[in-house]
Amino acid sequence: MHKPHTRRHLLGGLTAAASALALPAWAQADKSIRFILPNATGSGVDAITRSAQPALAKALGNPVIVDNQPGAGGIVGLQALARSPADGFTLSVVSNNVVIFPSVYKSLPFDMPGDFTPIAVVGYTPVVLVVNAKVPASNSKEFIALLKSKNGDMTFASGGNGTILHLASEMFLDEAGVKARHIPYKGVGPMLTDLIGGQVDFATAALPSVQAHLKSGALKAIGVATAQRVPVAPEIPTFVEQGLPNYVVEAWFAVIGPKGLPAAEVQRVHAAVVASFADPTVKEAMAKMGNVINVAPADKAMPFFRSELAKYAQLVKKAGVELQ
Fold first, then answer.
1. Can you give the pLDDT at residue 20?
2. Is residue 10 scored above 80 in pLDDT?
3. Which tens digits make up the pLDDT trace of 71-99?
4. What is the pLDDT of residue 27?
């Protein structure tokens, strides 16, 4: 009689343990939620995530850890996310890069967006074209004239092949009808170091990542790639008003998870994102960076990713970006 009784208790204990392991994030408040960022420390996405980190932890009911994995322009971090269990404990904040990669890489270790669950398109960051302080140009007209005179010998940096910052520079060159040589870096941090040091001539960058360098005079802004001037930096003219009406780039950012994230968990995380970016402290931080916050509904996220994939495939082709 004791053996069946003991076996029942054993099975019950195993079932309870398995149930505990399968509990969603909200039911395990002592376990950390890891946000894998396929971007380097100091990038726009990194600054956004770290600014929202305390509010996200509060809204999600779990500690939040930021894990930067910027290798291969961001592919390493995305691969790590794709391989993570769909339990709500591993998420990511990503940029346009994720929908550009399929158009610039011959092969990827994941399917975009099939191996992921888009949760919330949060907003966008202004993109600004900057030059090192020694470049003898202060506006678009002067800079384009300088590029033409150098006949393709000037260099531009990016945080990696196929990133939004790479494509933004290529789009500028295409619109202006000029050429320059691309120098890819392993992240925004190293890119800015060499740009300030004069090893490269120019780059496009997320405004939050270069604000301090613009104020110090280490970098100069040629223009911002938005439709209207940015309230946080009203002194920087748009390229639209400088004679390039088609040069508008929105560097959006979004929260995603691994493929197969349960619908209830998607809604929970989406609600936490909405609450976090409505937090007064986070709103103030976003405004200071120049970020525009407008969290789209959860059911709009996947259709948006698919439409952006098609859009950037055309832009990559038009800009003549070589396959990697």
1. 40
2. no
3. 777 899 999 999 999 999 999 999 998 99
4. 53
3-state DSSP assignment of residue 129: strand
127 contacts 206 by C-beta, under 8 angstroms: yes
Architecture of the domain spanning 32-123+252-319: 3-Layer(aba) Sandwich (3.40)
Residue ranges of alpha helices (H) inside the chain are: 2-22, 44-60, 75-82, 97-104, 140-150, 164-176, 188-197, 207-216, 263-278, 280-289, 298-319
Name the 3-class secondary structure at 94.
strand
Mean of all residue pLDDT scores within the chain: 90
> With 0-12 CB in 10 A as exposed, 13-18 as middle and 19+ as buried, what is 106?
exposed
127-224 fold: D-Maltodextrin-Binding Protein; domain 2 (3.40.190)
Residue 99's SS3 state is helix
Extents of the domains making up the chain: 32-123+252-319, 127-224
The pLDDT value recorded for residue 8 is 46
- 211-225 burial, b at 16+ Cβ within 10 Å, e below that, comes to bebbeeebbbbbbbb
Report the length, in residues, of the chain: 324
Q: Which amino acid is at 118?
A: P
